[in-house]
Specification:
Number of strands: 0
Number of helices: 10
Helix content: over 70%
Shape: globular
Strand content: under 5%
Largest sheet: none
Structural class: mainly alpha
Length: about 250
């Protein structure tokens, strides 16, 4: 009997399969790719966002990147995992030589690969279509570090929420709730509208959402000095730790 493949090779093979499956789901591509780009182009082109100063694209681009991460980590991963659990796919994979940690690692790698492509696409769209000029220092080490940390912490937070739903709810309920949260984060997460333009009673709620912290962290990478980077990092760490911890403790594989 042949020995199982090394763990690293198995994880990479499964991540490659996860990536191919994600790219074959037309409805997921709509959420992951088209909607963030459409938000950037629509609101950036119409210039209807009320801002006291600065460029509209400087505000919208970080929000669109945050929206892309939410779409991939929360909506795509959560819904796909919920249906895999419903169809018994996770149960079968759980019986393979690959440990469950390897399964999670493969899914996260596929998500991160998609998100890197999304970041590049959105920045290129802003430059080519909207005529956006990256500010000085955007390609510097601090800006790049904030983007990398934001992608990692944002993925941890929203993937944790997606897996938390996928591991406890029926697939249909996960589908509805994930799309509902996506819409809520879009409207209340400081992505297309500054928080100070929301009704006053919504501002305290919106300010603690991970979507707002993630978008602000990316704005800090563009040189926005009004954002509180440490508070945003703490927000994402807390959301990521709590969501991932609960998902790990409560996830039911079948």
């Amino acid at each position: 009997m042949s020995r199982p493949a090394p763990l690293s090779r198995s994880v990479i093979a499964l991540a490659s399969m996860e990536l191919r499956l994600a790219l074959r789901r037309g409805e997921n591509l709509l959420i992951m790719i088209l909607i963030p780009v459409a938000v950037l182009l629509t609101f950036g082109g119409l210039r209807v966002i009320p801002l006291a100063g600065g460029s509209v694209v400087d505000f919208l681009l970080p929000g669109s990147i945050a929206l892309a991460i939410i779409a991939t980590s929360l909506v795509n991963l959560g819904i796909a995992t919920a249906y895999e659990r419903s169809y018994g796919v996770l149960k079968r994979l759980g019986g393979s030589p690959l440990p469950r940690g390897g399964l999670v690692a493969a899914k996260v790698i596929a998500v991160l690969a998609i998100e890197v492509a999304q970041v590049v696409l959105l920045i290129a769209t802003a430059i080519v279509v909207l005529g956006w000029s990256p500010p000085l220092g955007f390609s510097g080490p601090t800006a790049l570090a904030l983007i990398v940390v934001g992608v990692i912490l944002g993925t941890l937070a929203f993937a944790g929420l997606g897996l938390l739903m996928a591991g406890r709810l029926r697939a249909e309920a996960t589908l509805a709730l994930a799309n509902g949260l996506f819409l809520a984060f879009l409207l209340l997460g400081g992505i297309v509208l500054p928080l100070d333009h929301l009704p006053s009673w919504l501002v305290p709620i919106a300010s603690i959402l991970p979507a707002n912290a993630l978008a602000d962290l990316f704005r800090a990478a563009l040189g926005d000095s009004t954002t509180n980077v440490l508070a945003d990092l703490a927000n994402l760490v807390i959301w990521g730790g709590v969501a991932s911890g609960l998902a790990t403790r409560t996830f039911r594989w079948e």
